[in-house]
Structure formats: structure tokens, C-alpha cells
């Protein structure tokens, strides 16, 4: 059952986090994530949420700014199945995946019920508009405050920030891909003044129908990455991060390096 914004606990229990190859990941369930986000909307503070997968972990090891953006997030949810498997291998199992697509739909459901305004930013031209139509069709009463493609280029930031600020959303979904979307938020979150920003990567592509999501059995088997690779063979270079991530996790474990747990921020 989804948590209602008005009944969300004021002081939820601290969510533990662990570090995979030095990169923070919170051990959070979907229900905990939704409860936390619901509380953030009216907290009077600015929050950003980042879903993390193995590819992003490997990228964050090399990119200090990206790693800092993850570190400063209000919530870092375990998106990729590889992250879940790695946590189990290390003996600190994360309950399950919290995918960007499923998280976005759950957030949209809460927003529709509570009258919260949502802005869709990023993806290719026209994709956010299609995703908006589908979300509003699925979640009656959902208020889409605005949609805009734009780009994460610094020269476009002033105009994008103006558009978002004028729309005054409670929740901003940003889909520029990692690490561009995370770095964009770190540069602009204070002037946007949006209570909750969620980095959603390719989620708008799936929601719009531009990219077909894997069938449920393939999702449950943890093979969505393979299904997407078949659809988009050009992603093969990016997929090389998966075996590198697995090898690095095993090597770190065998060398006796430990990743301490910390409470989520």
C-alpha cells in the first residue's frame, strides 16, 4: 500500500547504506523510498534522488564530481540488479531493486492522489510530451506542470531554470542520463527551489514507448540489461561496465577490503 503524503511519518527510521567500490547505495525498499519521497515534498528542504546501477558505480569511481553528487543525495536507490547481487555477495543484502521506471510510476500515483505538480525534463524532443500523455492516462488527476527537452549544456541552464521555476513543480523528473543529470542538479538545485528532483535516466524513453521495456519474466530474472542491449546494440560498450563491476567487487572482497555501512543522509 502506498504511503499518503499527509500520513507519512515525520521522522522515519534511518535507512542504512553501504558502499560498493566506494560508492554509496542505500538499502531501501520501494515502499521506504515512496514514504521518504512523500515526506520530502513538504519538508521545506531541497532534495535529490539518484537511482544507481553498476555502470554508474564504475563511472563514479573515476568521476569525483559525480561521486560527490551521489554522496550528497537525499536517497540513493538500488536500480541495477548487479547492485543487488553485489550486496548479497558481500553479505549485506539490499532487499530488492528500485528501478527508475517503477519508482516514477509510484511517485506519479502519489502525486495524482495528492495534487502534486510534476515536471518532466530531458530526453529527446517529443519524448517527455509522450511520457506525459501516458502518465496522465494511467494516473487520473496527475498534474504535469510542464515538459521540456533542452539539454544539460551550461549555456541552456538559465532558460531551463526559468521554465521550471515558473511551473513551480513539487517534483522534477530529469532525464539527461548519468552523469549529466546529476551534475546538472548539483549546479542548479538551489535556484530551482524544487522540493524533490529525481534523476530518471532513460525512464522517459520507456514511459513514452520510444524504447520497449522487457517483459515481466525477463525483469524478474534480472536480464533487462540484455533485453535492452538486443534492442540497442550500440550500447555494447557501456555494457562492458557490468563484468568490470563484478570483477572489481570480487577482487575487493578477496583482498579483504570491507565497505562499512552508514545511515542514509
- The residue fraction in helices comes out at 40-55%
Terminal CA distance reads 25 Å
Structural class: alpha/beta
Order of helices and strands: EEHEHHEHHEHEHEHEHHHHHE
Supply the number of structural domains: 1
- Number of beta-strand segments: 9
Strand order of the largest sheet: 4-3-8-7-5-6
Low-pLDDT segments, ≥5 res: 1-11
Major sheet: size, sense and barrel closure?
Answer: 6 strands, parallel
Structure annotation, total helices: 13
The share of residues in extended strands comes to: 15-25%
Describe the oligomeric state of these chains in a short phrase. single chain
Taken from the alpha-carbon principal axes, the silhouette is globular
Average predicted confidence as pLDDT: 89
Radius of gyration: 18 Å
What can you see in these coordinates?
With about 260 residues, the chain is α/β, with parallel strands linked by helices. It has one domain (about 45-250). About 50% of the residues lie in helices and about 15% in strands. The chain has 13 helices and nine strands. The chain has helices at about 30-40, 55-60, 65-70, 80-90, 100-115, 125-140, 155-165, 180-190, 205-210, 215-220, 225-230, 235-240, 240-255, and strands at about 15-20, 25, 45-50, 75-80, 115-120, 145-150, 170-175, 195-200, 260-265. The strands form two sheets. The chain has a six-stranded parallel beta sheet, sandwiched between helices. It has a three-stranded antiparallel beta sheet with strand order 2-1-9. α8 links the parallel β7 and β8. The longest helix is centred in the middle third of the chain and has 15 residues, at about 100-115. Mean pLDDT is about 90; it is low at about 1-10.
Amino acid at each position: 500500500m502506498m504511503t499518503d503524503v499527509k500520513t507519512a511519518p515525520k521522522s522515519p527510521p534511518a535507512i542504512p547504506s553501504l558502499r560498493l567500490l566506494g560508492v554509496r547505495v542505500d538499502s531501501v525498499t520501494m515502499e521506504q523510498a515512496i514514504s521518504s519521497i512523500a515526506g520530502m515534498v513538504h519538508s521545506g528542504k531541497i532534495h535529490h534522488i539518484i537511482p544507481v546501477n553498476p555502470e554508474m558505480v564504475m563511472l563514479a569511481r573515476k568521476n569525483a564530481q559525480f561521486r560527490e553528487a551521489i554522496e550528497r543525495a537525499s536517497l540513493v536507490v538500488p536500480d541495477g540488479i548487479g547492485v543487488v547481487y553485489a550486496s548479497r555477495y558481500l553479505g549485506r543484502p539490499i532487499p530488492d531493486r528500485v528501478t527508475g521506471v517503477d519508482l516514477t510510476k509510484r511517485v506519479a500515483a502519489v502525486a495524482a492522489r495528492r495534487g502534486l505538480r510534476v515536471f518532466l525534463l530531458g530526453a529527446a524532443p517529443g519524448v517527455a510530451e509522450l511520457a506525459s500523455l501516458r502518465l496522465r492516462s494511467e494516473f487520473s488527476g496527475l498534474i504535469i506542470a510542464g515538459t521540456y527537452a533542452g539539454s544539460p549544456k551550461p549555456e541552456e541552464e538559465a532558460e531551463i531554470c526559468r521554465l521550471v521555476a515558473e511551473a513551480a513543480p513539487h517534483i522534477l523528473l530529469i532525464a539527461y542520463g548519468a552523469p549529466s543529470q546529476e551534475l546538472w542538479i548539483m549546479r542548479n538545485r538551489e535556484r530551482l527551489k524544487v522540493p524533490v528532483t529525481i534523476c530518471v535516466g532513460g525512464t522517459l524513453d520507456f514511459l513514452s514507448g520510444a524504447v520497449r521495456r522487457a517483459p515481466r519474466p525477463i525483469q524478474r530474472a534480472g536480464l533487462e540489461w540484455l533485453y535492452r542491449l538486443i534492442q540497442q546494440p550500440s550500447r555494447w560498450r557501456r555494457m562492458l561496465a557490468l563484468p568490470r563491476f563484478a570483477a572489481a567487487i570480487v577482487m575487493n572482497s578477496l583482498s579483504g577490503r570491507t565497505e562499512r555501512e552508514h545511515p542514509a543522509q
